[in-house]
Amino acid sequence: MARSLLLMVGLSIAAASCGGDTPERAMARAEANRTAGKYAAAAIEYRNAIKMRPQWADAWRQLGDAYSEQGRSEDAYSAYYNAIELDSTDLHSRVQAGRVLLSAGRVNDALTRAREATDRDPSDADAHELAARALIRFKRYDEAITELVPALSTAPRPSAYAAFGEARLGQGNLAAAEAAFRAGVSAEPDSVEAHVALAQFFQRINRLADAERELTALVAKNPSSELANRSLAALYIAGGRRVEAEPYLRAAAAQSTQKLRSALALADFYVADHRDADARAVLEAATTGPLGDLARARLAALNTKE
Fold first, then answer.
1. Which residue range is the domain that position 275 belongs to?
2. Domain total for the chain?
3. Quick check: 73 and 261 in contact, CB under 8 A?
4. 212 in a structural domain
5. What is the pTM of this model?
6. 116 burial class (0-12, 13-18, 19+ CB within 10 angstroms)?
7. How far apart are CA 238 and CA 302, in angstroms?
8. CA 265, CA 213: separation in Å to the nearest integer?
């Protein structure tokens, strides 16, 4: 009886020390937040789960995904790295880590991650696509296309078609490139990424009217898409049409989740136009969100100018 009482007291103390919480409950809250698009809140709960169970590889993997959704690439890479260290079979984290490396210009390292994944699972479409994108950076277009054949056969999705289009464009085959980008749109007509890839192709080959037509239609259909608004703003800025670009850049910066860090881009836009007061207002608003540290650093640099 006394032993049972001591056990119950011990359990009560343990529960009180962590607020009655468990790793599983924290994970459930994290997944609910992530499903609702609340990625910053999800990341907090994933971290809570990890504090209670540091060796939980799946929690690290999902934390990496939550950071990726916020555009926090460095944090995402650290989380994916930990997931891989804890579970060598985690191909998702290897590929995602490779994507972060590729975005950072570490092409060789990205290709290494892709090869690690394809060696473990030759049918992994994500890994083949990552390898192809790395090879395109090296201008090894024939090899990239070879990588994309299994990716397109098992997962004919817009991102793989876009990579195929990039490789064909690198080879100088404009007709085949356009066909690939259009195939991506056909595969998923509602994909913002597919339409942006097609528009950017048009922009690169100087079919600017086609690019604008594609993006204006996309924004009209997806007015809250950060990517769609940023892409149209970028097109206008590149064409010297800054006045027309501003509303779309502001719309991108108004989104609560910003993978593209659009609030910082809007502040830079204002600084370039010598509108420091507007830039300061944008940065001050951003200090309370996921971009807080970066916004504060930009704000300090802006204030130093005075």
1. 261-306
2. 2
3. no
4. yes
5. 0.85
6. middle
7. 24
8. 23
